[in-house]
Amino acid sequence: MESLQEIHRRQKKVLFFLLALFILGWGFTDFKQICAGLILGSLFGLYNFWILVRRMERFDRAITAGKGRASLGTAMRFASGVAAAAIAISLPEKFDLISTVIGLMIPYILLLTDRILFHTKHH
């Protein structure tokens, strides 16, 4: 079984590639607001994914040690998503809100796709 760090490392590579595409789209197309929203949402989504990985490792250590419950950082990730949406709402001439929300979900979509491919390949 792969460790969380290996999965996170692979996800970062794919997400950085997508971010590069979004930056190219922002620089060379007329869809600047959409690409900027995707960039903003993806950056906040990457941050949320990093928090999730860090908290899951802490949760695993707490369960293994027989200690009490550990939080998975849901409130922190929710607040981060709200912050991304607030930025997009406060600067509508720079960021598209819908593409920001889609960008927030990209790391989770990549994770789901990665896990489906992993289980398809290994079963």
Overview features:
123 residues; mainly alpha; 4 helices
Shape: flat
Number of separate strands: 0
Largest sheet: none
The structural domain count equals: 1
Q: How many H/I helical runs? A: 4
Order of helices and strands: HHHH
How many angstroms separate the termini?
13 Å
Whole-number mean pLDDT? 91
Helicity level:
over 70%
Instruction: Give the helix/strand class.
Output: mainly alpha
**Low-confidence regions:** none
Tell me the β content: under 5%
Rg calc: 16 Å
Keywords: Cell membrane, Membrane, Transmembrane, Transmembrane helix
Protein name: ATP synthase protein I
Subcellular location: Cell membrane
Membrane topology: Multi-pass membrane protein
Would you mind describing this structure in some detail?
The chain has 123 residues and is mainly α. It has one domain (4-114). Helix content is 81%, strand content 0%. It is built from four helices and no strands. Helix 2 (32-64) runs antiparallel to helix 3 and helix 2 (32-64) packs across helix 4 (97-121). The longest helix has 33 residues, at 32-64. It is flat. It starts with a helix and ends with a helix. The model has no long low-confidence stretch (mean pLDDT 91). It is a multi-pass membrane protein. This is ATP synthase protein I.
Summarize the entry for a quick read.
By secondary structure, this protein is mostly helical.
Q: How is the secondary structure organized here?
A:
Elements: H1 4-28, H2 32-64, H3 74-90, H4 97-121
Helix pairs in contact: 1-2, 1-4, 2-3, 2-4, 3-4
